[in-house]
Amino acid sequence: MGKPVGMPGPNTDLHSFRPGWAECKLPLSTAHAPQHMQAAHSTVDLRSAPSANAPLDTQLLFGEMVLVHAHDEQWAWVESEWDGYQGYVAFKALAEPMEPTHRVCVPRTFQYAAPDLKAQMVDCISLASEVAIVQVHQTKNGPYAELADGSAIYAPHLVPIEQSFPDWIATARELLGTPYLWAGRSGMGADCSAFVQLALRMANIPTLRDSDMQSATLGEALDPDMPLNNLSTGDLVFWRGHVGLISKPGVLLHCNARTMSAVEEPLEEAVERIANLYEQPTGFRRVGA
């Protein structure tokens, strides 16, 4: 996902202040400290205006902590505590925060109404989502982790919150086949920069949301004129409005709108094709875990 057009503030630069505060029509809570809340659904759409018809800017993952700066009965103006992204979400999609104990370590997993694989499926939770487990039930079909609301997730799909996955390229490859979704940010659907962000999140590498932000901040900048065959596994390739990663020498892994999915393909072929849309790559960066 490239830089959103016409959006001031941290969604288009690298700062936490957004000049658009003056345009916010919701009752401001600035008389008190911002309220800490968290996303209560698998994905919570964050929009550029308090309307279900407003453009989708990004998504919050289940359990993601936010600062609520303003809200009314329908909408909240929030800031993600993960990457600083700001915008409007449905207020009913937020909940009082609970300290997370675990996070999802597979591309996606089901949330059941009870700790039983035959129980009603109530949601599908993405990689990197954070949950608070209250107890684990040993069933004949394996262990299920119960959440505070009584719902449950297959326990082997969760790891302790502090566990890291340094091989973020392996994580990215597990996401192969993920559908492309403009402004999507989950294992159910992601755009190019969210795909990179998800993999790096599991390695506990702080990563901003959009490709222009990533190209300015992630890792170490490489010579923009270096030959493509000099790129190493884990290097990022940036175009104007697109990003992909080198999954192995000569191979690009990216979530893209051509196949509408996350795929691997020969790097040189991808560069030649993408040049028709975004010109040549604008830069390369090397990220270390």
* Head-to-tail CA distance between termini: 23 Å
Number of helices: 4
Question: pLDDT below 50 for ≥5 consecutive residues: which ranges?
Answer: 2-10, 12-22
| Biggest sheet statistics | 6 strands, antiparallel
In percent, how helical is the residue content? 10-25%
Mean pLDDT: 90
Silhouette = globular
Helix-strand sequence: EEEEEEEEEEEEEEEHEEHHEEEEEHE
How would you describe this protein?
The protein has 289 residues and is mainly beta. The chain is built from four helices and 23 strands. It has helices spanning 168-174, 192-202, 211-217, 267-278; strands spanning 35-39, 43-47, 56-61, 65-71, 75-80, 86-90, 94-95, 102-104, 108-112, 121-126, 130-131, 133-139, 142-147, 152-154, 158-160, 185-186, 189-190, 220-221, 235-239, 242-248, 251-256, 261-266, 283-286. The strands form six sheets. A six-stranded antiparallel sheet has the order 18-23-19-20-21-22, with helices on both faces. A hairpin with a 2-residue loop joins strand 16 (185-186) and strand 17. Helix 1 crosses helix 2. The longest helix is centred in the C-terminal third of the chain and has 12 residues, at 267-278. The chain starts with 34 loop residues before the first strand and ends with a strand. The model is unreliable at 2-10 and 12-22 (pLDDT under 50).
